[in-house]
Predict the structure.
Amino acid sequence: MAVPKKKTSKAKGRSRRASAWTLGRSARSACDRCGAVKRPHRICGNCGWYAGRQAVDVD
């Protein structure tokens, strides 16, 4: 088994572990009614529609 020649610093080990914590981009979709970008399965913040019906009144 390979043995390291020098001690690995705490910063090096922690940065190696931290590389797995990165967040991916959240999913995006377009509103069917107004075409605004929104998250999937959410009410559109621009027009207030969801699943083919008016869910909330947006001024």
Observations:
- The helical segments are 10-18.
